[in-house]
Amino acid sequence: MSGPEAAKVPNQILDVLRQHRELFPHSLPDGLPPRRPYDHRILLAPGKLPTRAPIYKMPPDQIKHHNQEIARLTAKGWIGPTYSPICAPTIMVDKKEDGSGERKMRMVINYQALNALTIEPEFPMPSVQSVLEMLGGATVFSTMDLEAGFHQIRMARTDRWKTAFRSVQGLYEYKVMPLGLKGAPATFQANINAYLQPLLGSGVIAYLDDVLIYSATLESHTKLLEQVRTAGVNIPGLSNKRGWHQARSGQG
Question: Where do the Reverse transcriptase domain residues begin and end (predicted)?
């Protein structure tokens, strides 16, 4: 962290962040993520399979972006060719304008038919009321979000075929947890809670890919940041905590 953004952050906090620059990569490395406590499973209603969907019609410009995204995800090692009795359709949607003037698109998979037959796992999310109560007395806050959080969790190998989607190049399946699956938020929350369990409710709140760290004083906040760093880095399978994307601090 440097420049105007760093000028707003207390030196004690900056020291912690700079000591652990490896926690804040610009992008995730290629390949499957480390083993987490829980792979994502897709449990279907007994005797049920979603119907196969036809490929959606795309104009040439969308096909170009579609092929680029397939190539990117394949190079990352996050998807691969498959042969599956089910498949979901894909569409391309425009990304938010970033000022470059270049059209950018993202691929969206319509898992509606699959989700309708999926048995959703239960995992508690923190309520707004409980969060507000825990923040009482806190004056120093940091937030961290995880880069491509869902893609940092593996799909269970036995369930990959259920993520199959249609492409103009054929069928592909996800090796990591994709967006849009019923139950994916619960799997993500279960994993992040497993890593931060000793700290949850005692200065740390996790809600999906956002982690809030709160303290009454700057000194205690610095120690807590180190504890969060340790929880993320020293756990087997998450050795470099490569998912932490950025941190912002504020006092008030």
Answer: 96-231
